[in-house]
Amino acid sequence: MKPSISILGCGWLGIPLSTTLLKAGYPVKGSTTSPAKLKELTKLGLHPYVIDLHNRKDRNHFLNADILIIAVPHKNIDNFKFLRTQIKNSQINRLIFISSTSVYPNTNGEVTEKSQTLPTPLANIESIFSNISGIQTTIIRFAGLFGGDRKPGLFFRDDSLIKNPDGFINLIHLDDCIQIIKTLIEKNIWNQVFNACADTHPSRREYYTQEMQKEGRKPPVFDNTKASEYKIVSNDKLKKHLNYQFKHPDLTHFIEPK
To answer: Please, which domain of life does this record's source organism belong to (predicted)?
Structure first.
């Protein structure tokens, strides 16, 4: 029997992830902060729950699962500490925390999982979940997210001045986000930290000019007054440990699946 999974945060990533896991035979619970979305989650086949981390109610039923995936853009450290206590007292024994490569500073070079992180709330939240006794935790640091209704050619307004034009792009498509999480679960890869980012890193100038043209928009305006700062996120560890090949490795020649 496949392990049961609870997904905290059924939004842009959580909803398609949950449907993928359901199709693969996993029992899945999903949370939303909006009662109006309960019917939508039910229709998808999920066992839905309304959970707002600001509201510290009992979450025993939701946490009655083998694996918890935390996929919420929430930065309140105290609320996460309370959630950690609830997890410790629950059935959960494996945990995936969705983080971001924004924890790394711009180094004007490559960053790996061993690189120093910034003292940000997100980095602190990672540490809250990385050392829970009796629970195996894997942290995935996703690069910038795109896919579906998140189109890079729409990331900026017409009047935006795009900084760091000669820096480099770090992005990952929704399809790869989902497949990476599914692969981690299937292969039982725990107690790890992984960067998840497409293989290619075109310049911001090249990439956003191309993507805005795809959307029929006028060319972007870049800030050329300062030297560009950037980082290039390495995905080598993830590809090696998971034996993973990206569905969308090449950002320059990407075409959105239909």
So the answer is: Bacteria
